[in-house]
Specification:
The protein is mainly alpha-helical. It has a single domain (24-75, 86-342), classed as ABC transporter type 1, transmembrane domain (ABC transporter transmembrane region fold). It is built from 10 helices and no strands. The longest helix has 51 residues, at 246-296.
């Protein structure tokens, strides 16, 4: 019995370890199908777009700091004939950066949609060729519904859901990285706490992805009986009233509603926990280091505000990054299943003519 229990624990730990791993092979298959020219365009456009966004915020912070310092100097000199602060160079740079950011957002959106379209066409054509040339024993051992599901649901996931999730994941990841970079630039003391924070975030997201995926599946599984029972109740309302089963069906509906609400509550609580716990740590460290730097090294108020603003947004960015990572892990299962069918050996037609 002890040996059996230890074997079960080993199997459970190995299963949990496999579930905590990202399907990097399926992700590589999806990105490799994009092509050698489209993939660098996608990565470069994302990097340039977020660089311009950070530059816009930094320009505003510098503009604010210089305007405040210029006004303070005029008040100290008590000079009424002195020229006011010149806002023209800052407004020109800000306008150019905004226009460039709008163009890069358009290029990024086009690159993401183009990538999804090209990957879907390539995987669909490859899958169709493999299925057409597959041997007869493949159709005898594989259910027809499974083959149709690869062409319908999985191709729909690759076509519509994965590009949007990929764009959200890359955006939230780069926003989180840029926020940490801005905080580190404003207050270099933040780099001391960045390493333990990164380690803590890695282990938290590793276990959160498994919990989030299970809670999402639990929410979906408890929502289906609720909708089915409600539709059946509405369709058979006359019969229910004839047999006076209103209380029974009402109680059943309340039970299904409670089950779905419990799953939704746990999913929402897990997401809020991820956002508040790590976000509070980042905001606390960034605030302490910013105030310390402002007191001892005369850091400008605009840069301090910029660092604290990014620190307040890190929690939201990190939450969306982990949630999109969990969604991407689920959606990459479609690529994994199609990739499994692409390994089917074709029928040997040599000598038939």
């Amino acid at each position: 019995e002890e040996v059996t229990e230890s074997d079960d624990e080993d199997n459970l730990s190995s299963v949990l370890h496999q579930r905590a791993k990202m399907p990097w092979r399926a992700c590589g298959k999806y990105l490799s199908a994009a092509g050698i020219l489209l993939l660098p365009l996608l990565v470069l456009s994302q990097l340039l777009k977020h660089t311009v966004m950070v530059a816009i915020d930094y320009c505003l912070a510098r503009w604010t700091s210089d305007a405040i310092s210029g006004k303070t100097e005029l008040e100290l000199k008590n000079c009424s004939r002195c020229e006011d602060f010149n806002h023209s160079p800052y407004s020109k740079v800000f306008s150019i950066l905004c226009c460039l950011g709008i163009v890069l957002c358009l290029v990024t959106s086009i690159a993401v949609e183009w990538t999804g379209l090209k990957v879907t066409k390539k995987l669909h054509s490859s899958l169709l060729n493999k299925i057409i040339l597959a041997p007869m024993r493949f159709f005898e051992t594989t259910p027809l519904g499974s083959i149709l599901n690869r062409f319908s649901a999985d191709c729909n996931t690759i076509d519509q859901h994965i590009p949007a999730t990929l764009e959200c994941l890359s955006r939230s990841t780069l926003l989180c990285v840029s926020a940490l970079a801005v905080i580190s630039y404003v207050t270099p003391m933040f780099l001391i706490a960045l390493v333990p924070l990164a380690i803590m975030c890695y282990f938290i997201q590793k276990y959160f992805r498994v919990a989030s995926r299970d809670l999402q599946q639990l929410d979906d599984s408890t929502q289906l009986p609720l909708l089915s029972h409600f539709s059946e109740t509405v369709e058979g309302l006359t019969t229910i009233r004839a047999f006076r089963y209103e209380a029974k069906f009402r109680q059943k509906l309340l039970e299904y509603t409670d089950s779905n609400n419990i799953a939704s509550l746990f999913l929402t609580a897990a997401n809020r926990w991820l956002e508040e716990y790590i976000g509070a740590c980042v905001v606390l460290i960034a605030a302490v280091t910013s105030i310390t730097s402002c007191l001892y090294s005369k850091l400008s108020s605009g840069l301090v505000g910029l660092g604290l603003t990014y620190a307040l947004m890190v929690s939201n960015y990190l939450n969306w990054m982990v949630r999109n990572l969990a969604d991407m892990e689920i959606q990459l299962g479609a690529v994994k299943r199609i990739n499994g069918l692409l390994k089917t050996e074709a029928e040997n037609y040599e000598g038939l003519l």
